[in-house]
């Protein structure tokens, strides 16, 4: 049994000393719309996903939709978002992505799309 275990020990030691492969994320294809609350949204949301996740959601959803999304991130995925930040994120998403407006011309091509 010891003869069989020895090669696996060497493999484990070699694997433990190797560096993980280099990784470069793909270029951003979306960005959050500049509006009140964007900084806290960037701070907590971009830790796990890009702004693409928001810009690919169904358009013009109400606050309840965004509340459910933020709750899902916290409860199902374990996002460490404090209550006050969660409220600010929901307010930002509901206000900024709820209705198309002249104040956000990028809505015409899709919310938050990078130029």
Produce a short descriptive summary.
With 115 residues, the chain is mostly helical. The chain has helices at 2-17, 38-45, 52-55, 63-75, 83-97.
Please explain how this structure is put together.
With 115 residues, the protein is mostly helical. The chain has one domain: Cytochrome Bc1 Complex, Chain D, domain 2 (Orthogonal Bundle). 49% of the residues lie in helices and 0% in strands. It is built from 5 helices and no strands. Helix 2 (38-45) crosses helix 5 and helix 4 (63-75) runs antiparallel to helix 5.
- CATH-defined architecture: Orthogonal Bundle
Q: Mean of residue pLDDT?
A: 80
Helix content: 40-55%
Inertia-based shape: elongated
**Distance between termini?**
63 Å
Number of domains: 1
Beta-strand percent range: under 5%
- According to DSSP, the number of beta strands is 0
| Succession of helices and strands | HHHHH
CATH class: Mainly Alpha
Identify the CATH homologous superfamily. Cytochrome c-like domain
Largest sheet: number of strands, sense, barrel closure: none
What structural class results from the helix and strand content? Answer: mainly alpha
What is the CATH third-level topology name?
Cytochrome Bc1 Complex, Chain D, domain 2
Alpha plus pi helix count: 5
Low-pLDDT ranges: 102-115
Rg from alpha-carbon coordinates? 21 Å
């Amino acid at each position: 049994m010891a003869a069989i275990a020895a090669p696996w020990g060497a493999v484990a030691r070699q694997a433990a000393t190797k560096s993980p492969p280099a990784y470069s994320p793909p270029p951003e294809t979306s960005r959050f719309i500049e509006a009140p609350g964007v900084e806290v949204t960037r701070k907590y949301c971009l830790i796990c996903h890009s702004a693409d996740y928001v810009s690919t959601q169904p358009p013009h959803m109400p606050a309840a939709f965004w509340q459910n999304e933020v709750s899902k991130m916290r409860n199902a995925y374990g996002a460490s978002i404090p209550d006050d930040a969660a409220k600010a994120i929901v307010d930002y998403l509901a206000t900024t992505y709820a209705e198309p407006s002249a104040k956000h011309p990028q809505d015409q091509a899709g919310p938050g799309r990078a130029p």
